[in-house]
Amino acid sequence: MSSQQIPEDSLPAVQETAHGAVEGTDDPFADPGLPAHKPRIQDLDERAANRSERAVALMFTLSMLATVGFIASYVIFPVDKIVYIWPFGHVSALNFSLGLTLGAALFFIGAGAVHWARTLMSDVEVAAERHPIEATPEVKAQVMADFAAGAEESAIGRRKLIRNTMFGALALVPLSGVVLLRDLGPLPEKKLRTTLWAEGKQLINMNTMKPLRPEHITVGSLAFAMPEGLDPESHDFQTQMGKAALMIVRIEPDDIKDKRQRDWAHEGIVAFSKICTHVGCPISLYEQQTHHVLCPCHQSTFDLSDGARVIFGPAGHPLPQLRIGVNSEGNLEALGDFDEPVGAAFWERG
User: Which segments carry the region annotation Disordered (predicted)?
Assistant: First the structure.
Protein backbone atom coordinates (compact mmCIF):
# COMPACT_ATOMS: atom_id res chain seq x y z
CA MET A 1 0.00 0.00 0.00
CA SER A 2 1.35 3.42 -0.88
CA SER A 3 2.11 5.77 1.95
CA GLN A 4 1.77 8.87 -0.20
CA GLN A 5 -0.44 11.54 1.50
CA ILE A 6 -2.93 13.82 -0.24
CA PRO A 7 -2.05 17.48 0.32
CA GLU A 8 -4.31 18.91 3.02
CA ASP A 9 -4.70 22.25 1.28
CA SER A 10 -6.80 20.54 -1.43
CA LEU A 11 -9.46 19.05 0.89
CA PRO A 12 -11.40 22.14 2.02
CA ALA A 13 -12.03 23.28 -1.53
CA VAL A 14 -13.47 19.88 -2.50
CA GLN A 15 -15.68 19.64 0.59
CA GLU A 16 -16.97 23.19 0.27
CA THR A 17 -18.01 22.59 -3.31
CA ALA A 18 -19.71 19.28 -2.43
CA HIS A 19 -21.68 20.73 0.45
CA GLY A 20 -22.73 23.73 -1.55
CA ALA A 21 -21.88 26.40 1.01
CA VAL A 22 -24.00 29.54 0.89
CA GLU A 23 -22.19 32.52 -0.54
CA GLY A 24 -20.93 34.89 2.13
CA THR A 25 -20.98 32.32 4.96
CA ASP A 26 -18.81 29.48 6.16
CA ASP A 27 -21.83 27.30 7.10
CA PRO A 28 -22.50 24.82 4.24
CA PHE A 29 -25.99 24.08 5.64
CA ALA A 30 -27.25 27.63 6.10
CA ASP A 31 -30.79 28.37 4.90
CA PRO A 32 -30.46 30.16 1.56
CA GLY A 33 -33.95 31.63 1.92
CA LEU A 34 -36.51 32.04 -0.81
CA PRO A 35 -35.43 33.19 -4.24
CA ALA A 36 -36.46 36.67 -5.35
CA HIS A 37 -40.02 36.77 -6.62
CA LYS A 38 -40.34 37.19 -10.37
CA PRO A 39 -43.68 38.64 -11.51
CA ARG A 40 -45.59 36.91 -14.28
CA ILE A 41 -46.77 38.62 -17.40
CA GLN A 42 -50.32 38.54 -16.04
CA ASP A 43 -49.13 40.55 -13.02
CA LEU A 44 -47.78 43.27 -15.26
CA ASP A 45 -50.18 43.31 -18.22
CA GLU A 46 -53.94 43.47 -17.63
CA ARG A 47 -54.59 42.33 -21.19
CA ALA A 48 -52.64 39.14 -20.52
CA ALA A 49 -54.63 38.65 -17.31
CA ASN A 50 -57.87 39.06 -19.26
CA ARG A 51 -56.70 36.49 -21.81
CA SER A 52 -56.03 34.04 -18.99
CA GLU A 53 -59.46 34.76 -17.55
CA ARG A 54 -61.11 34.00 -20.88
CA ALA A 55 -59.07 30.79 -21.21
CA VAL A 56 -60.17 29.60 -17.77
CA ALA A 57 -63.79 30.50 -18.52
CA LEU A 58 -63.56 28.62 -21.82
CA MET A 59 -62.39 25.47 -20.02
CA PHE A 60 -65.23 25.67 -17.50
CA THR A 61 -67.70 26.22 -20.36
CA LEU A 62 -66.31 23.19 -22.20
CA SER A 63 -66.83 21.18 -19.01
CA MET A 64 -70.49 22.24 -18.93
CA LEU A 65 -70.93 21.28 -22.59
CA ALA A 66 -69.28 17.90 -21.94
CA THR A 67 -71.70 17.24 -19.07
CA VAL A 68 -74.63 18.08 -21.33
CA GLY A 69 -73.12 15.72 -23.90
CA PHE A 70 -72.88 12.99 -21.26
CA ILE A 71 -76.59 13.27 -20.48
CA ALA A 72 -77.50 13.47 -24.18
CA SER A 73 -75.41 10.37 -24.94
CA TYR A 74 -77.18 8.45 -22.19
CA VAL A 75 -80.53 9.26 -23.79
CA ILE A 76 -79.57 8.97 -27.48
CA PHE A 77 -77.48 5.79 -27.74
CA PRO A 78 -79.15 2.40 -27.14
CA VAL A 79 -77.33 -0.10 -24.95
CA ASP A 80 -76.73 -2.56 -27.79
CA LYS A 81 -75.39 -0.11 -30.41
CA ILE A 82 -71.86 -1.05 -31.55
CA VAL A 83 -69.68 1.31 -33.61
CA TYR A 84 -66.17 1.14 -35.07
CA ILE A 85 -63.76 3.74 -33.68
CA TRP A 86 -60.10 3.74 -34.66
CA PRO A 87 -57.85 2.57 -33.03
CA PHE A 88 -60.15 0.89 -30.49
CA GLY A 89 -62.07 -1.21 -32.98
CA HIS A 90 -65.68 -2.14 -32.38
CA VAL A 91 -66.92 -0.67 -29.10
CA SER A 92 -70.20 0.19 -27.44
CA ALA A 93 -71.33 3.60 -28.61
CA LEU A 94 -72.93 4.28 -25.24
CA ASN A 95 -69.91 3.33 -23.14
CA PHE A 96 -67.49 5.21 -25.39
CA SER A 97 -69.55 8.40 -25.42
CA LEU A 98 -70.17 8.29 -21.67
CA GLY A 99 -66.47 7.81 -20.91
CA LEU A 100 -65.38 10.49 -23.37
CA THR A 101 -67.83 13.16 -22.21
CA LEU A 102 -67.45 12.50 -18.49
CA GLY A 103 -63.66 12.46 -18.80
CA ALA A 104 -63.75 15.74 -20.72
CA ALA A 105 -66.05 17.33 -18.12
CA LEU A 106 -63.71 16.43 -15.25
CA PHE A 107 -60.55 17.27 -17.21
CA PHE A 108 -61.65 20.78 -18.15
CA ILE A 109 -62.64 21.58 -14.57
CA GLY A 110 -59.19 20.50 -13.38
CA ALA A 111 -57.36 22.23 -16.23
CA GLY A 112 -59.30 25.43 -15.68
CA ALA A 113 -58.54 25.40 -11.96
CA VAL A 114 -54.81 24.79 -12.58
CA HIS A 115 -54.56 27.53 -15.22
CA TRP A 116 -56.40 29.92 -12.92
CA ALA A 117 -54.01 29.19 -10.05
CA ARG A 118 -50.87 29.45 -12.18
CA THR A 119 -51.71 32.65 -14.03
CA LEU A 120 -54.10 34.74 -11.96
CA MET A 121 -53.88 33.73 -8.30
CA SER A 122 -51.03 35.10 -6.22
CA ASP A 123 -47.83 33.09 -6.60
CA VAL A 124 -45.81 34.88 -3.89
CA GLU A 125 -44.14 32.26 -1.67
CA VAL A 126 -44.45 32.90 2.04
CA ALA A 127 -42.39 31.15 4.72
CA ALA A 128 -44.03 30.54 8.11
CA GLU A 129 -42.44 29.08 11.20
CA ARG A 130 -43.86 25.85 12.58
CA HIS A 131 -46.24 26.36 15.46
CA PRO A 132 -47.94 24.15 18.07
CA ILE A 133 -50.97 22.17 16.94
CA GLU A 134 -53.28 24.26 19.06
CA ALA A 135 -53.22 27.70 17.49
CA THR A 136 -53.17 30.84 19.57
CA PRO A 137 -55.87 33.50 19.08
CA GLU A 138 -53.34 35.60 17.22
CA VAL A 139 -52.59 32.76 14.79
CA LYS A 140 -56.28 32.10 14.24
CA ALA A 141 -56.81 35.75 13.47
CA GLN A 142 -53.84 35.66 11.09
CA VAL A 143 -55.27 32.58 9.32
CA MET A 144 -58.58 34.32 8.77
CA ALA A 145 -56.76 37.40 7.54
CA ASP A 146 -54.66 35.26 5.18
CA PHE A 147 -57.80 33.53 3.91
CA ALA A 148 -59.46 36.86 3.22
CA ALA A 149 -56.30 38.08 1.50
CA GLY A 150 -56.13 34.91 -0.58
CA ALA A 151 -59.74 35.32 -1.63
CA GLU A 152 -58.97 38.88 -2.60
CA GLU A 153 -55.83 37.92 -4.51
CA SER A 154 -57.64 35.13 -6.37
CA ALA A 155 -59.85 37.84 -7.87
CA ILE A 156 -62.89 35.57 -7.57
CA GLY A 157 -65.02 38.55 -6.66
CA ARG A 158 -63.64 40.77 -9.39
CA ARG A 159 -63.39 38.20 -12.17
CA LYS A 160 -67.05 37.31 -12.38
CA LEU A 161 -66.70 35.46 -15.68
CA ILE A 162 -64.41 32.85 -14.08
CA ARG A 163 -66.55 32.62 -10.95
CA ASN A 164 -69.84 32.12 -12.78
CA THR A 165 -68.52 29.57 -15.28
CA MET A 166 -66.75 27.63 -12.50
CA PHE A 167 -69.95 27.46 -10.47
CA GLY A 168 -71.81 26.32 -13.60
CA ALA A 169 -69.31 23.55 -14.30
CA LEU A 170 -69.31 22.33 -10.68
CA ALA A 171 -73.10 22.42 -10.57
CA LEU A 172 -73.56 20.40 -13.77
CA VAL A 173 -70.97 17.65 -13.22
CA PRO A 174 -72.96 15.93 -10.39
CA LEU A 175 -75.85 15.54 -12.83
CA SER A 176 -73.80 12.78 -14.49
CA GLY A 177 -74.11 10.70 -11.33
CA VAL A 178 -77.82 11.45 -11.03
CA VAL A 179 -78.41 10.25 -14.58
CA LEU A 180 -76.53 7.01 -13.83
CA LEU A 181 -79.13 6.23 -11.15
CA ARG A 182 -81.36 5.28 -14.05
CA ASP A 183 -79.40 2.00 -14.30
CA LEU A 184 -80.75 1.00 -10.90
CA GLY A 185 -83.96 0.14 -12.70
CA PRO A 186 -87.32 1.73 -13.50
CA LEU A 187 -89.22 3.59 -10.83
CA PRO A 188 -91.56 1.27 -8.93
CA GLU A 189 -94.47 3.75 -9.12
CA LYS A 190 -97.42 1.86 -7.54
CA LYS A 191 -96.01 -1.63 -8.11
CA LEU A 192 -94.98 -1.97 -4.47
CA ARG A 193 -98.50 -1.16 -3.30
CA THR A 194 -100.60 -3.34 -5.60
CA THR A 195 -100.80 -7.01 -6.61
CA LEU A 196 -102.80 -9.04 -9.13
CA TRP A 197 -105.57 -9.55 -6.60
CA ALA A 198 -108.75 -7.68 -7.48
CA GLU A 199 -112.45 -7.94 -6.84
CA GLY A 200 -113.93 -11.05 -8.44
CA LYS A 201 -110.66 -12.97 -8.93
CA GLN A 202 -111.00 -16.56 -7.77
CA LEU A 203 -108.53 -18.23 -5.40
CA ILE A 204 -106.67 -20.95 -7.35
CA ASN A 205 -105.20 -23.86 -5.42
CA MET A 206 -101.43 -23.96 -6.02
CA ASN A 207 -101.41 -27.78 -5.98
CA THR A 208 -104.44 -28.65 -8.09
CA MET A 209 -104.60 -25.42 -10.14
CA LYS A 210 -108.38 -25.44 -9.59
CA PRO A 211 -110.60 -22.89 -7.82
CA LEU A 212 -110.81 -23.31 -4.06
CA ARG A 213 -114.17 -23.89 -2.42
CA PRO A 214 -115.01 -23.36 1.26
CA GLU A 215 -115.45 -27.10 1.81
CA HIS A 216 -111.87 -27.66 0.67
CA ILE A 217 -110.58 -25.75 3.70
CA THR A 218 -110.92 -27.62 6.98
CA VAL A 219 -110.30 -26.24 10.46
CA GLY A 220 -106.58 -26.31 11.19
CA SER A 221 -105.52 -26.83 7.59
CA LEU A 222 -103.22 -24.56 5.60
CA ALA A 223 -103.55 -23.99 1.85
CA PHE A 224 -101.79 -21.76 -0.65
CA ALA A 225 -103.46 -19.92 -3.50
CA MET A 226 -102.70 -17.65 -6.43
CA PRO A 227 -104.91 -15.23 -8.38
CA GLU A 228 -107.09 -16.46 -11.20
CA GLY A 229 -105.57 -15.84 -14.63
CA LEU A 230 -101.91 -16.05 -13.59
CA ASP A 231 -100.04 -18.49 -15.85
CA PRO A 232 -97.23 -20.48 -14.13
CA GLU A 233 -95.43 -20.60 -17.49
CA SER A 234 -95.38 -16.83 -17.95
CA HIS A 235 -92.04 -15.00 -17.77
CA ASP A 236 -93.14 -12.83 -14.84
CA PHE A 237 -94.79 -15.59 -12.81
CA GLN A 238 -92.22 -15.49 -10.00
CA THR A 239 -92.30 -11.70 -9.90
CA GLN A 240 -96.08 -11.62 -9.55
CA MET A 241 -96.17 -14.46 -7.04
CA GLY A 242 -93.57 -12.61 -5.00
CA LYS A 243 -96.36 -10.20 -4.15
CA ALA A 244 -99.58 -12.17 -4.65
CA ALA A 245 -98.71 -15.42 -2.80
CA LEU A 246 -101.58 -16.19 -0.44
CA MET A 247 -102.07 -18.57 2.48
CA ILE A 248 -105.54 -19.64 3.62
CA VAL A 249 -106.45 -21.14 6.96
CA ARG A 250 -109.75 -21.94 8.63
CA ILE A 251 -110.22 -20.90 12.25
CA GLU A 252 -113.26 -21.36 14.44
CA PRO A 253 -115.08 -18.00 14.19
CA ASP A 254 -115.21 -17.73 18.01
CA ASP A 255 -111.39 -17.92 18.08
CA ILE A 256 -110.94 -14.87 15.86
CA LYS A 257 -110.14 -11.91 18.12
CA ASP A 258 -110.00 -9.10 15.56
CA LYS A 259 -113.42 -7.82 14.45
CA ARG A 260 -112.27 -6.54 11.07
CA GLN A 261 -110.52 -9.84 10.40
CA ARG A 262 -113.78 -11.64 11.09
CA ASP A 263 -115.65 -9.32 8.69
CA TRP A 264 -113.07 -9.96 5.95
CA ALA A 265 -113.23 -13.73 6.40
CA HIS A 266 -115.79 -16.26 5.15
CA GLU A 267 -117.10 -18.70 7.74
CA GLY A 268 -113.76 -18.56 9.58
CA ILE A 269 -111.67 -18.88 6.42
CA VAL A 270 -109.04 -16.13 6.48
CA ALA A 271 -106.54 -15.21 3.77
CA PHE A 272 -103.22 -13.48 4.49
CA SER A 273 -100.13 -12.65 2.46
CA LYS A 274 -97.55 -15.41 2.53
CA ILE A 275 -94.70 -12.87 2.30
CA CYS A 276 -93.02 -11.97 5.60
CA THR A 277 -93.00 -8.26 6.39
CA HIS A 278 -89.39 -8.39 7.57
CA VAL A 279 -87.32 -9.12 4.44
CA GLY A 280 -89.87 -10.88 2.24
CA CYS A 281 -89.26 -14.57 2.97
CA PRO A 282 -92.14 -17.01 2.25
CA ILE A 283 -94.03 -18.19 5.33
CA SER A 284 -95.20 -21.78 5.48
CA LEU A 285 -94.94 -23.07 9.08
CA TYR A 286 -98.37 -23.13 10.75
CA GLU A 287 -99.15 -24.16 14.31
CA GLN A 288 -102.78 -25.28 14.50
CA GLN A 289 -103.32 -25.05 18.27
CA THR A 290 -102.03 -21.47 18.65
CA HIS A 291 -102.92 -20.20 15.14
CA HIS A 292 -99.36 -18.93 14.81
CA VAL A 293 -97.33 -18.90 11.59
CA LEU A 294 -93.55 -18.78 11.68
CA CYS A 295 -91.15 -17.31 9.12
CA PRO A 296 -88.27 -19.79 8.70
CA CYS A 297 -85.72 -17.10 7.84
CA HIS A 298 -85.59 -15.02 11.03
CA GLN A 299 -88.32 -16.57 13.19
CA SER A 300 -90.83 -13.74 12.97
CA THR A 301 -94.10 -15.10 14.36
CA PHE A 302 -97.61 -13.88 13.50
CA ASP A 303 -100.93 -14.61 15.22
CA LEU A 304 -103.51 -15.37 12.50
CA SER A 305 -106.35 -15.27 15.05
CA ASP A 306 -105.54 -11.65 15.92
CA GLY A 307 -105.09 -9.81 12.62
CA ALA A 308 -101.77 -11.58 11.91
CA ARG A 309 -100.02 -9.21 14.28
CA VAL A 310 -96.35 -9.76 15.11
CA ILE A 311 -95.82 -11.52 18.44
CA PHE A 312 -92.13 -12.34 18.05
CA GLY A 313 -89.18 -11.56 15.82
CA PRO A 314 -87.88 -8.64 13.75
CA ALA A 315 -90.92 -8.12 11.47
CA GLY A 316 -92.34 -4.64 11.84
CA HIS A 317 -95.86 -5.05 10.41
CA PRO A 318 -98.70 -7.56 10.54
CA LEU A 319 -99.29 -9.72 7.48
CA PRO A 320 -101.64 -7.95 5.05
CA GLN A 321 -105.10 -9.54 4.87
CA LEU A 322 -107.11 -10.21 1.72
CA ARG A 323 -110.86 -9.80 1.96
CA ILE A 324 -112.60 -12.88 0.54
CA GLY A 325 -116.08 -14.15 -0.21
CA VAL A 326 -117.89 -16.75 -2.32
CA ASN A 327 -119.09 -16.19 -5.89
CA SER A 328 -122.22 -17.52 -7.56
CA GLU A 329 -120.43 -20.79 -8.41
CA GLY A 330 -119.54 -21.42 -4.78
CA ASN A 331 -115.85 -20.73 -5.25
CA LEU A 332 -113.76 -18.51 -2.99
CA GLU A 333 -112.98 -15.13 -4.56
CA ALA A 334 -111.17 -11.94 -3.62
CA LEU A 335 -113.21 -8.84 -2.85
CA GLY A 336 -110.32 -6.49 -3.59
CA ASP A 337 -106.57 -6.23 -3.18
CA PHE A 338 -104.59 -6.51 0.06
CA ASP A 339 -105.39 -3.86 2.61
CA GLU A 340 -101.76 -2.57 2.62
CA PRO A 341 -98.46 -3.12 0.73
CA VAL A 342 -97.12 -6.66 0.80
CA GLY A 343 -93.69 -7.69 2.03
CA ALA A 344 -90.84 -5.82 3.66
CA ALA A 345 -91.27 -2.20 4.66
CA PHE A 346 -89.93 0.58 2.45
CA TRP A 347 -89.30 4.23 3.20
CA GLU A 348 -92.41 5.56 1.45
CA ARG A 349 -94.71 3.16 3.25
CA GLY A 350 -97.15 4.96 5.50
Answer: 1-36
